Amino acid sequence: MKSLFFKGLFIVFLLFSFSVSAQSDKRKELENRRVQLQQEIKRISDLRTSNLRKEKSILTEVENLDQQIRSTENLIRVTNQQANLLTREMDANQRKIGELREELKKLKEDYARMVQKSYKSKSQQSRIMFLLSAESFLQAYKRLQYMKQYTNYRKQQGEEIKTRTAQLQSLNESLAEQKKAKDRLVAENRKTRARLAENKKSQQTLIASIRKKEGQFAAELNQKQQEINSIDREIERIIAEAIARNNRESGSGSTSREIFELTPEAKALAANFESNKGKLPWPVRSGIVSMHFGEQRHPVVTSTTINSNGIRIDTEKAGKAKAVFAGTVSEVQAVKGANKAVMVRHGDYISIYNNLDKIFVKRGDDVSIGQDLGEVATSNSSGKTTLHFLLYKNNQKLDPEQWIINR
């Protein structure tokens, strides 16, 4: 019976340990994301401050402000998640404290009864008489074993009381720390919401000034779109040439400029890449998407649309572009209007890291997931450090945000 009881306790302990471990991992994940968002907001804020000393486009300013607002909203959301997680942990700890107190009360009562009983029969003479009154040697032996087990059980209960008392003290201390942490998060969120309100007010002022000259800003955006289209066409040309060269070198006899001829190894790599859709790491350590994939209406100049074959990620100055998956560098080329590009082939998939200033790899290199490929260039005019990240399957463009981890 005791064996089953202790097995049950062990299982409960394991389940509790797994639960605590999972909560701890989630807490670390949220804290890392919160710190990352704080760094993004500071980076954008510093960029906006430095740009105020220059003659900058109002559109650039409103785009920067829009990014800061989105990051601030994300920060509030993550901080709320942290506070909610702490609340759940505090509730669980309070329940556990109640259970431990009840267990401790029963253990102490049981221990007190044992001590009292032991006291009544503690004399050496009564123990010897208990043994000598046995009707046989076997019965005497069993009585001796009983006395040993009784003594050991009493010691075990004493240790159990110490353990439970220590657990209770630890949980109480943990609960106090959790309350402090939650209070800090709530206070931080209050300040963050105040900054958000100020930024939104500034945004409305800027938007109002843009509305008055919408035609002028629409022309500016159209010029920007032409530059994007030119870069996208150059990327597509490089991809077509890479496909054609691969097919010539493979000896397959294919002259296609649209589809890679794959070896069995390349097919396996492509299948592995495809199975990781939605789980690929970001191509930079930290950053925020400043331009999404496909056609999108401008959030301020609503008469204008922007189209992109990939996404743009604003990152920290001197940030590194990182391979999102293992593969082989198929191209390293200069792209007019976007510095240099590194293309990494994963079977018939290609990940493209454009707008790099420094390059750390060369054509033909095998790269591993997370490997630094180059340093992202910083614009002299806007002060932004922006990676142009694209994904293709053969010559078919894909939405990178559907493939990378959702932050």
UniProtKB/TrEMBL annotation:
Residues 308-400 form the M23ase beta-sheet core domain. It comes from the Bacteria. SUPFAM superfamilies: Duplicated hybrid motif. Transmembrane segments: none annotated. CDD domains: M23_peptidase. Residues 20-117, 168-195 form a coiled coil. Residues 1-22 form the signal peptide. The keyword Coiled coil applies. One of its GO terms (molecular function) is metalloendopeptidase activity. PANTHER family: L-ALA--D-GLU ENDOPEPTIDASE, PEPTIDASE-RELATED. This is Peptidase M23. It comes from Salinimicrobium marinum. The lineage of its organism: Bacteria, Pseudomonadati, Bacteroidota, Flavobacteriia, Flavobacteriales.
